[in-house]
């Protein structure tokens, strides 16, 4: 199980829970697991989120995640 920290705007989809646990070995599995456990997160994740693993942003759905990692979903900043 990995622990995923959510920004405050997402907590309305998780009944106020800030840290959600899902079974995953990769970022893609983690995102899919979040949507499966909390369907309200689906549109937000589909629109794009940033994932930080141990303080490093990753864009790869294939990046490995594990129990020892500190994982944060971060709102993607849009604009130009």
SSE string, helix = H, strand = E? EEHHEEE
* Residue share in helix: 10-25%
Output the number of helix runs.
2
- How much of the sequence lies in strands comes to 25-35%
Which structural category fits the helices and strands? alpha+beta
**How would you state the average pLDDT, rounded?**
95
Radius of gyration: 12 Å
Order of strands side by side in the largest beta sheet? 2-1-5-3-4
- At the first level of CATH, the class is Alpha Beta
Task: Report the uncertain regions.
Answer: none
Total DSSP E strands: 5
- Note the main sheet: 5 strands, mixed
The total tally of domains equals: 1
Shape: globular
Distance between the termini: 37 Å
Tell me what the CATH architecture is: Roll
Query: According to CATH, what is the topology?
Result: Ubiquitin-like (UB roll)
Q: Could you give me the name of the CATH homologous superfamily?
A: Beta-grasp domain
Describe the protein:
- It is a single chain.
- The protein is of the alpha+beta class.
- It has a single domain, classed as Ubiquitin-like (UB roll), CATH 3.10.20.30.
- It has 2 helices and 5 strands; from the N terminus they run ββααβββ.
- Strand 3 (49-53) and strand 4 (56-58) form a beta hairpin.
- The longest helix is centred in the middle third of the chain and has 11 residues, at 27-37.
Features:
80 residues; alpha+beta; Ubiquitin-like (UB roll); five-stranded mixed β-sheet; 2 helices; 5 strands; 21% helix; 26% strand; globular
Summarize it.
With 80 residues, this protein is an alpha+beta fold. The chain has helices spanning 27-37, 42-47, and strands at 2-5, 19-22, 49-53, 56-58, 71-75. The longest helix is centred in the middle third of the chain and has 11 residues, at 27-37.
